[in-house]
Amino acid sequence: MPEAEVAREPGWSVRLKLTLSYAGFLAVAVVLLLAVVWAFILRYVPAEAVNTIGGFVPGRDDLVRAFAPAAAWVVLFLVLFGLLGGWFLAGRMLAPLTRITTATRKAANGSLSQRIRMPGRNDEFRELADAFDTMLERVEAQVAEQRRFAANASHELRTPLATTQAMLDVAITDPNQDTTALLERLRAVNTRAIDLTEALLLLSRADQRAFTPESVDLSLLAEEATETLLPLAEKRGITITTAGELAPAVGSPALLLQMTTNLVHNAIVHNHPEGGAVWVTTTAAPGSVILAIENTGEVLAPGVVATLTEPFQRGTERVHRDQAGVGLGLAIVASIVRAHDGTLLLTPRAEGGLRIEVRLPASVIA
Question: Please, are residues 114 and 106 in contact by the beta-carbon 8 Å criterion?
């Protein structure tokens, strides 16, 4: 539920405040000018009129009586002129703000596709409008991604639930069915549902950046991930080669280990059935560290590679084999990389397989 708007007392508009400010400053300037005239000119004039040989010289009182009404009319005119001119100028100045406010209200009502696109030269209002447009683009993309992800997640979670329901219905109608085999199938389906749920939670955690940054060496994480997955690689007849140098980064050790593990796991699973290879390397560059993972496998089209980081996308057929995963491996990797202000690059290898490069900001403690 959206939060209720804050109750506020009605007040003057900014345009009215600016108008009164313009008129007030103009009136004060005129009064100060008259005060200067009085202080530096009229005070040197004698109070009484003087008859001289050259003629009549008016005194200070005569000048005040002649000048005061004209000065009052001038002050009144300038105040009115300041009000009218200030109202016009304030309206011109605040017109972009009105446009931004209208766009903000539309966005608050769910219209994320519209943009301000304010014309003119750069100033504070146009910087605000451009920043608002950029924010809307990111929010719209994020909302679209979340909707697409929710739809895919619902579909993926519905599959094991529907499978479980079907097996239970069959068990009820067929009392002679092998109970042990049924329990094993139920256990496998339930395990997959749990894995999918945990992957979704991990993906949400990475998107929210819910971690405390620490100094971590990607080379150590690469070694730990390859050691953990070495039995799986040996079972599939795949060799893993780990090399490189120290790659100190800043982030969550747990998330970065999950990222590395997912990449190595993906390289093992999506490989040749026998005789495949995986290469894991880490390097340090000026201001950044690089984790690169390459594997052999089928030749992938660039269009397919571009969709691999989308949730529930796989480069091969969606067949749930041993350790096949739940289709969130690279989506989790992309989210973790994004949460660490890094970049993820997927490149198909000409001879088959994939090269994945993760570039993260280097640790300043290195």
Answer: yes
Q: What tokens does 111 get?
A: 């219209």
**Cβ–Cβ < 8 Å for 361, 341:** yes
- pLDDT tens readout for residues 186-234: 887 787 777 777 766 766 666 666 677 889 999 999 999 999 888 889 8
Six-digit token pair at 87?
């109202």
What is the C-alpha separation between 339 and 249, in angstroms, rounded? 13
Q: Which residues contact 160 (CB under 8 A, 6 or more apart)?
A: 189, 190, 192, 193, 196
- If we measure between CA atoms, which residue out of 217, 219, 222 comes closest to residue 240? 222
- Cα separation of 222 and 219, whole Å? 5
Helix (H) / strand (E) containing 67: helix 60-108
What is the CB neighbour count within 10 angstroms for residue 163? 17
Identify the bridge partners of residue 242 per DSSP, sorted by sequence position.
Answer: 280
**In angstroms, rounded to a whole number, what is the distance separating the alpha carbons of residues 13 and 52?**
59
Q: Which residues pair with 97 in a beta bridge?
A: none
